[in-house]
Design brief:
The complex is a heterodimer of chains A (323) and B (308). Chain A has 323 residues and is mainly alpha-helical. Chain A has helices at 10-13, 16-26, 36-50, 63-76, 94-106, 119-127, 139-144, 193-203, 206-212, 231-234, 240-253, 263-278, 283-301, 303-314; strands at 5-9, 133-136, 166-169. The longest helix of chain A is centred in the C-terminal third of the chain and has 19 residues, at 283-301. Among the domains of chain B are: 17-45; 87-264, MetI-like fold. Helix content of chain B is 76%, strand content 1%.
């Protein structure tokens, strides 16, 4: 299941000197952060101690990725996308402004230029040991362990310098974004609908899918409950048990991506807002602009139509976390 | 042969000649017909079809092909983002074009005289023009990269301390970054055309003016510039049209960001058409651009005295 996971350097976190220094400074134990405040504390602490060799954290800050992280964090902080009765966008609430402001401020303890990082740049930084924490989809965890990266199809993945040193946890807030994903479907114009359906059924059957999710080059993440406890998968690398356990937890607590009519237009407004944030614009002004754009889109789609779609989505258990 | 016979003979000869001419014309039309048909299919048909679509209400979710009047065209005038995109395009054109012309002319002046290795230098200088713009943009994105890009490393070396410039995000550097890439790639085009034009300047006039004691600038403005003017104006017109269409370099560098800061009319049209799927509105935008460009080109050509 495509879901965000926090990856962190358990060797750095487990270092006794780091632990005592951190506890002396912040008053709590150095461990995988459960809140964004803890994340900021740890990030600052590690950057102050190790830079420029290593920084506390790095993220893929390019707008298309960062907008997922915003959606996740905004909801974990208690934010709601819309007023369910009026369909006015509430993304520019105090929570929205706070999240944007904190995201911007966190760049200060991340490597210079992190605002331009995409999936590969962030991966390369983490696998080379330049960053001590990152958040990304499940493949990072497998590649950090060195699993499957000898395959020709994965020659583009940088070789991990941190195999055996990576811990896995839920991102701060405890409810990670499912952040896009993959599905299989049958085209309505297919001449062989039944055969196509049966093929999909076969692909997703317990035995075949268990093999598929372990093929290094398929980018298929575990999605059946049985995948998380498969003995073969558990034996793939020493920390596979922790990896699968975290993925299982993340799948159960994960947040659905916003899914209403013409969602991409709303996300495009978010993407533009985030790139403006990195360009130095005021978070409040950005949040207000995003909200105004969202209201415009809602008006074009039709308020009542969109309200029905939103209420349908919001009623699902994974839409908003139970805080 | 009698006079009547020769008259009949001349008439039949004339008739044969006209028939032969007609057959020739028919054959010529037949030969070029496939090419004309293809041009009509890929040129005229989409143009007319787009015009029709621009008067409909087609979007991602609405398959409304009924006549929607001038709704889409009216929307153009209220679309602030559209006019901002046109302004961004105008800024890029207004800055890049004169710089490319000036640099191209300077380079052409350097290479117009014979020198050892001239052909090799010219070939190397022209290389940026032959690569695809999207590749040029992607390469400059790597050159500008903060961690590994050589530009940052060179600047840091010169400054004596780490320099962090976000060329694709910092509002002060976004346009310079785009312009550097654009000018790097297309100045050689100007250089090549102007080199050819300079090579054909009448040398006897130049020699005569030298004997008369004319200064360099007098020779340039009175002899060289008038001689290369037609080529220069055509080169400028071609580059201006290319700059109005600019897409690949900006897409590779900034994707129109941050926000919509570097969004040009091509990028905005692409976003409307292939991201937002506002099909009919996109067609209206396209026609607005066609009208604007046609007006500008016609005016420019008349001013340049290329057409009467």
């Amino acid at each position: 299941m495509d879901v965000f996971v926090l990856y962190y350097r358990k060797d750095i976190f487990g270092d006794p000197q780091n632990q005592s220094e951190f506890k002396a400074k912040y008053g709590y134990d150095l461990a995988a952060p459960k809140t964004w405040k803890q994340f900021d504390d740890i990030g600052n602490f590690l950057t102050d101690k190790y830079k420029p060799k290593m920084y506390g954290a790095g993220f893929f800050r390019q707008a298309p990725y960062a907008q997922f992280m915003f959606q996740e964090r905004f909801r974990n902080e208690g934010g709601k996308f819309f007023d369910p009765e009026t369909m006015k966008a509430t993304i520019n609430s105090d929570i929205g402004v706070k999240v944007l402001t904190e995201m911007r401020d966190e760049n200060k303890f991340m490597p210079p230029g992190v605002e331009t990082w995409g999936f590969v740049e962030n991966l390369a930084a983490f696998l080379s040991g330049t960053t001590a924490m990152t958040i990304s989809w499940p493949p990072y965890g497998r590649w950090a362990a060195g699993y499957g990266t000898d395959e020709k199809a994965l020659a583009w993945v940088p070789k991990s310098q941190i195999a055996g040193k990576v811990g896995y946890a839920l991102p701060p807030g405890g409810h990670p974004e499912l952040a896009a994903g993959f599905d299989l479907s049958v085209a309505s114009t297919s001449k062989n609908k039944e055969a196509a359906y049966l093929f999909i059924q076969w692909l997703n059957s317990k035995d075949i899918s268990t093999q598929r999710v372990q093929l290094p080059y398929t980018l298929r993440d575990p999605f059946r409950v049985s995948h998380y406890t498969d003995p073969v998968y558990l034996s793939r690398w020493p920390d596979a048990k922790d990896y699968l356990s975290t993925l299982h937890q993340a799948a159960e607590t994960g947040l659905l991506d916003l899914s209403i009519l013409q969602t991409d237009k709303y996300e495009e407004a978010l993407r533009q807002g985030i790139s403006s944030l990195w360009a130095g614009e005021d978070p409040k002004a950005i949040a207000d602009k995003i909200a105004a754009q969202w209201d415009e889109i809602t008006a074009k789609v039709g308020v009542e139509k969109q309200k029905a779609a939103y209420q349908g989505w919001a009623s699902k258990s994974g839409a908003y976390p139970q805080l | 042969m009698t006079a009547v016979d020769s008259g009949i003979s001349r008439r039949s000869h004339g008739l044969n000649h006209r028939l032969s001419l007609a057959a020739d014309r028919q054959f010529k039309y037949l030969i070029i017909a496939p090419a004309i048909l293809v041009l009509l299919l890929i040129g005229l048909f989409p143009l007319i079809y787009s015009l029709v679509v621009s008067f409909q209400g087609l979007t991602m979710t609405e398959e409304d092909t009924s006549f929607a009047g001038f709704t889409n065209y009216a929307r153009l005038f209220h679309d602030l983002r559209l006019w901002q995109a046109l302004a961004h395009t105008a800024i890029i054109t207004a800055v890049a074009l004169p710089l490319e012309l000036l640099l191209g002319l300077l380079m052409a002046q350097l290479f117009v005289d014979r020198m050892p290795g001239r052909q090799i230098f010219v070939a190397l200088l022209v290389l940026p023009t032959v690569i695809s713009p999207i590749v040029a943009g992607a390469n400059w994105a790597l050159l500008f990269d903060v961690r590994f890009g050589p530009i940052t490393q060179i600047l840091s070396f010169i400054a004596g301390q780490p320099v962090t410039i976000l060329w694709t995000l910092n509002p002060y550097f976004v346009y310079p970054g785009i312009l550097i890439c654009e000018i790097w790639q297309w100045t050689p085009f100007m250089f090549l055309l102007l080199l050819a034009a300079l090579s054909n300047v009448d040398q006897s006039q130049l020699e005569a003016s030298e004997i008369d004691g004319a200064s360099y600038w007098r020779k340039f403005f009175k002899i060289v510039l008038p001689a290369i003017w037609p080529v220069m104006t055509i080169a400028c017109l071609i580059r201006a049209l290319d700059l109005v269409r600019i897409f690949d370099i900006i897409w590779a560098l900034t994707q129109g960001g941050p926000g919509t800061m570097s969004e040009t009319i091509s990028i905005y049209t692409y976003v409307q058409g292939f991201s937002d799927f506002e099909t009919s509105y996109t067609a209206a935008i396209a026609f607005l651009v066609i009208v604007l460009l046609t007006a500008i080109v016609t005016f420019a050509l008349k001013r340049m005295e290329i057409v009467r």
